[in-house]
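Example 5.3 — tRNA (N6-threonylcarbamoyladenosine(37)-N6)-methyltransferase TrmO
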Amino acid sequence: MHATHSTTLEPIGHIESCYPDKFGIPRQPGLAPSAKAQLVLHAPYNDPLAVRGLDAFSHIWVTFLFHKSPPSWTPLVRPPRLGGNAKVGVFATRATHRPNRLGLSLVELVSIDTEGGVALTLSGHDLVDGTPVFDIKPYLPWADGVEGARSGFAPAPPVIRPVCFSQTARTQLNALSDGAAIKALIVEVLAQDPRPAYQHGSTGRVHGVRLSDKDVRFRAFVDDTDRIALEVIEITSGDPT
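Solution (predicted structure tokens):
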């Protein structure tokens, strides 16, 4: 017989992200190094004393809530890495539909701003805008990186798609003051092929993804080497909220 214990967690902060929506977010952290976010701490946790010494670490673990996923779970899920068809146990995956909807991401800590509160600048994250954060811990490579560890059904990073830009998209990028940064983020995100797994073999359909304050429209096609590639058709300004 097991003991029943209920715990209430209070967010210590939230994420202000370049990903307004879930669609397009890389399925693991670190796959889009250009992705930036702010982790803003809430009172009373926004005391500069709480992050004293944290700037000595290059990376941190962030514990958060998948707040845009429904509060329900299932014992079996279909990981995209298995084509979206094969089922495995939810605890053998990093799926968002979990009993407590908790997530854990390893992200780069770029800087810490303690003027008028505490805000951490993160890079290479996989967090949607507004994500509630429950905890922060420093990453220790000698303890957290295990040599020879097995990776189950995800032994290597996902296949990287070639990404190109139409003349219209190139013109639109050139007109942006931050065009180089936006282009880098678009390439890193689309290279992961954010489309549902069952669509990865198809071409022609136009998709849209929101990155920062931009709406990006793209399509898949077969390039000259018979590989599926993604073409950015159009980049327009959108409302990040």
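Remark. The chain has two domains: 13-144, 163-237.
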